[in-house]
């Protein structure tokens, strides 16, 4: 499968493997958190492959965009892991936290408290 990328003043096509091979699709996950982490890791790995291609083709602007995007994803994921680890509700608290998109980041603690109660 081909994926179009932008950067460096133009559009470029790169080969991208399907997100999950047939073998991976057949996996039955015992725990939802493991599936979520696996998919997160696959997304990061795909982006690293794109970054490698971009470096080889001098597309540093697009590399920087990808790196910034994935760093933000990692920061968000780590934040959710910390919330789950420090709350009594664990991943249920995170699920409720993520579902409340109305509140701003400055209201994080209030959102967590509402989710736990």
UniProtKB/TrEMBL annotation:
The lineage of its organism: Eukaryota, Metazoa, Spiralia, Lophotrochozoa, Mollusca. This is Uncharacterized protein. Residues 1-25 are annotated as: Disordered. It comes from Dreissena polymorpha.
